Please model this.
Amino acid sequence: MAEQELSSTMVEHEYGASEIQVLEGLEAVRKRPGMYIGSTSSSGLHHLVYEIVDNAIDEALAGYCDHITVTILEGDVIKVTDNGRGIPVDIQQQTGKPALEVVYTILHAGGKFGGGGYKVSGGLHGVGASVVNALSEWLEVRVHKNGSIYEMKFARGDVAQEMKIVGTTDLTGTEVIFKPDSEIFEDTVYDYEILHKRMREQAFLNAGLHITTTDSRPEQDKFDDMCYKGGIREFVTYINRNKTPLHEQVIYVCGERDDSMAEIALQYNDSYNELILSFANNIHTPEGGMHETGFKSALTRVLNAYGQKTGLLKNDDKVSGEDCREGLTVVISVKLTEAQFEGQTKAKLGNSEIRTLVDSLFSEKLAIFLEENPSVGRTILEKALTASRAREAARRARENIRRKTALDGSTLPGKLADCNERDPKLTEIYIVEGDSAGGSAKGGRDARFQAILPLWGKMLNVEKARADKVYGNDKLTPVITALGAGLGDEFDVLKLRYHKIIIMADADVDGAHIRTLLLTFFFRFMRPLVEGGYVYTAVPPLYKLVRGKTIRYAYSDPERDQISAEMRGEDGKGKVEISRNKGLGEMDPHELWETTMDPEHRILKRFDLSDAVAADEAFTILMGEKVEPRKAFIEENAKYVVNLDI
Ligand code: 0RA
Model:
C-alpha cells in the first residue's frame, strides 16, 4: 500500500506579498472576540495557540517546514516557532506595508483567502494571526529570512515597533511570542495537558512532522517531543494501546483524486465499542459528515461481499453496519481545498465529493487487503458475526422486557418516587445509592420537580458485558424505564422524562465506584445523554461544623478551615465542633435537602465528555480487563478520569 509522506501534498508555487488580500480592520475582533475564537473562556485562550500553530502546519503541508515548537513561558506567555520559509517581509503593493505587518494587523489577510496559495489549509476560522494579535496584550514576531532577522512588535493589535532588522542569521523560520490580553480573557492560565494533547493529535495527523511542547513556567518542568513517521497508523496504535487488538497490523489506506486526498487507518480490538475519529484539513469533526458516511458504507459493503465470497456468511445472511464496527478503532483524515463545515457546532463535513472518494478508495483497497490477509479477514468477519448474533439476542431480550415492564416508560418502576411537574425541562431525577439514603432523599426533596430513584445491590459493569446482558439487567432496567428514552440505537433524547439526571452517592470509594458504573452505562448505552450535558453528580458536604446553635457545612478541607475560623471569630472563644460527614444514609431528610439537593445551596458537577478519545480511554482503563494500566492511570491522572465541570 502506498505510503503517505508529508511531501506528497507539497505544491510548487511561488507565493509572495501580492497574493495576500486586504479585507478589514481589527476593532471588530476586540469588540466581539467570541465571533472569532468561539469564546473568551479557557477554550478561547487555548484557541489562540492553535491559530498560530495552524499557520505553521500550513507551511509544513506546503513542504517547507518540519519542526514546530510550542512553549509556555513564565507569565503564561506563549512562544511558537517553526523552521519554514519565514513569513514574507517584502512590501505589499496594495498597502505599501511589509506583508508581515499586513498579516498581523488586517483581518482575513493571508493566502488562504486569495485563491492560489496553499493547496489545503487548516485553521478553524482561517483568520489566524491578526485575531491572535488583536487579543494579545502584546505580541512579537521575528522572521529569519534572506540572512536577516526581521522583528516587529504589537500591542493589542496596534503596531508598537515597525518592522526592523535586528541581526543576521543562517536559518529560515518564524518565531511568534504573545501574551493573551487579561482584559479579554476570563482566565489567562494555560493548561499544558490541553496544548500537549492537541499538538500530539496534529503530530499524528501530519506524518513525519516534528512537534515539541514545553512548559517552562516556574515550578513546571514538562517537555514532550513528538514525531510519528507512521502518522495516523500510529494514532490508531496509540488509541488501542490499553486494549487487546484482534490483529497485529493496523490496516492503512490512502489515495487522492483531483485536489482531495484521504487516508484511513483502522484496527479491531476485543471490546464492543466503536471509536471513529475523523478529521478534515486536520480539524476534528466530532459530528462526522461525508468522509465518515463514505467509510461506513464501504466497510459494510465490502465485509458482506467478502463474507459471501468466502462462505463465512451463509445463504443470504448479512451483517449490519453496526456489527461491522463493533470493536473498531478508526482514524479518517481527509484534506480538501474548500471544506464546508456544517452542523450545530460546525463540526461536520458537508462536501459530498469526499463521500465518493472515501467510499471508492476504501472499498477497493480493503477488498485487496482482505484477499491478501485471509486470516485477518476471517477474524474481522467472525467478530461482526458474533456482534450480529448478540444484537439479535439483545433485540429479543428488549422485546421481552418491553412486554414485561415497558422500556418506553408507560409503566414506571415501583421504587421511583416521581415528581408532579411533567415538563422535562423543569424536572430532575436523583439516582441514589442505597435504600436508606433513598429514604432521606424522598423525605427531603421538593416533590414538585424532584424525582428519586434508589438503587441497591451490585451494579452491572457494562464495559465487560454485551448488549443483551444489559437489556435484561434488573439493576439497570429501573433506570432505563424511569428516564423513558430507551437504549442503544433506539435512545431518543426527546423522550427523556427529566433534563437533569443527578447521581447521588457517598464521597467514598464505594460511592465513586457506583458513580463510575452508572456513568459508564450512560456513556456506552445512552451517549446523547452524556453529550447533551444532562448528567450531573451531586456533591455532598465533607464536614459538618457546629457551634452552639449554628450549623454549617464544608465541601472541602480549605473551606472547612475557613468556615471554622469564621465561626470562631464571631466572639473569640468557644469551640467549633467539626465532624466528618458520615454518609448520605445518615443525614436526615432536612439536612440532605439543605446541603445536597436545594438548588439554592447545592453543588452540582456536570459530567463533561466533549473529548471522545479521552472518555473512551478513561472507561476502557477504569472498567476494562487490564489491571496494570488501570493502576498507572489512577495514580497518574485521577483528575482526568471524569472531567467534572462545576
Ligand atoms: C506565504 C509565503 C511564504 C511563507 C509563508 C507564507 C509562511 C507563513 C507562515 C506562518 C507561520 N509560519 C510561516 N512560515 C511561512 C514564503 C514566501 C517567500 O518565499 O518569500
User: Anything to note?
Assistant: The first helix runs from residue 27 to 31.
